[in-house]
What we know:
Blueprint: H1 16-21, E1 29-30, E2 33-34, E3 36-37, H2 48-61, H3 70-90, E4 97-100, H4 103-115, E5 123-127, H5 136-145, E6 148-152, E7 154-155, E8 160-161, H6 163-169, E9 174-180, H7 192-201, E10 205-209, H8 221-224, E11 228-232, E12 242-246, H9 248-253, H10 277-292, H11 301-328, E13 333-336, E14 347-352, H12 357-366, E15 369-370, E16 372-374, H13 379-384, E17 392-396, H14 403-416
Helix pairs in contact: 2-10, 3-10, 4-5, 10-11, 11-14
Bound molecules: pyridoxal-5'-phosphate.
Pyridoxal-5'-phosphate (PLP) binds next to helix 4.
Amino acid sequence: MMTTAAPFRPGDATPTATIRTRFPALRREHRGRPVAYFDGPGGTQVPELVARAVADYLIHHNANTHWRYPTSEETDRLLAQAREAVADLLGAEPGEIVFGANMTTLAFHLGRALGRRWGPGDELVVTELDHHANVAPWRALERERGVTVRSVPLDLETGELDWAALEAALSPRTRLLAIGAASNALGTVSDVGRACALARAAGALSFVDAVHYAPHAVVDVRAIGCDFLACSAYKFYGPHVGVLYGRRDRVEALDAPKLAPAPETAPERLETGTLNHEGIVGAAAAVEFLASLAGGAGGPRRERLGRTFAALHERGQALVQRLWDGLGGIRGVTRYGPPPGRPRTPTVSFTVAGRSSDKVAVALADEAVFVSNGDFYATTVVERLGLASEGLVRAGCACYTTEEEVDRLIEAVGRVAPT
Ligand SMILES: Cc1ncc(COP(=O)(O)O)c(C=O)c1O
């Protein structure tokens, strides 16, 4: 008789308590209390397995690439394996994965390469909701190449993009749409599949910033239909390394600044100089870590990643509901971004009346609750909210965040708020 595997339920994934045992940083105390890390949108903590992979590379395999001795061959193999792991994370092919210093550097590099073929009369579309790493590289081409940049407004009521304005901004003159999959300031998740389809229909390329999205949901570059997509391993439990997905034919067609002897083939033609090998090996370990959270059922890595993110999404949405409701019950607290139920990540930004974001962050740190504050380089969002001087307080939930930590955060904010 044929048996079929029982369907996966998010509850089958590794429990949060077990996940926490894998992060040595969670044993840290501050002023006698365990630290609650809500700074994941700025950079998550790292599981021991990732730190060990980095150390193991440096101790046992450290070399430059493409030479004829064991450590160099091992380095080539480890980098190839890392491309496979990250390709699984993004639903891409290993030959479409470019590594670099960080998303910002990769975006500037790509912008410079694309811009060599653009000039006056060409248009680029950016959005007000984006981190400036997905704005400045395209704005730079206004000065350098004379292109025109159009910006899609943020709807302050909903915390979402103005989709009618996005459609209106695209035209046969548009060469590229640059759009974020999730806002690191408001948590808003944008339908980048729809946006890239609109760009394609206008004959434009698309560049997706998935830095804040990739830690929370499975990325599928084919389903999104983007030409380029970037993310950063240090936001998904890895080291400080940037990743760029580039559709192979697009990368091969680029007029990329590079040294003549460096490879002409994709993806290496976009990788300048010697890479951060240990960081890349650590990024692959972070993908393995994520896949390992899927629970016992096994299966190909991409499938396990899908199950992991299904579970993390469900947990994240429960945490965001608790956080949103708890903060909403505190006098003087204003929450920003889409409410729970709308497409969003478990990242909530807020202000406390009469207290600067700096003051709130310091008061919370005193209670061992670590949050980020300011504009997080999502400068236009914060300006549009009229908070350029006070800034936002940002609390981001990660795979290790517990309900008890969310309650500690809410109670600590309650003590800072005016009575
Ligand atoms: C949404 C978003 N995009 C881009 C960046 C820039 O990433 P990187 O530090 O890898 O350059 C960040 C960093 O916080 C981010 O949150």
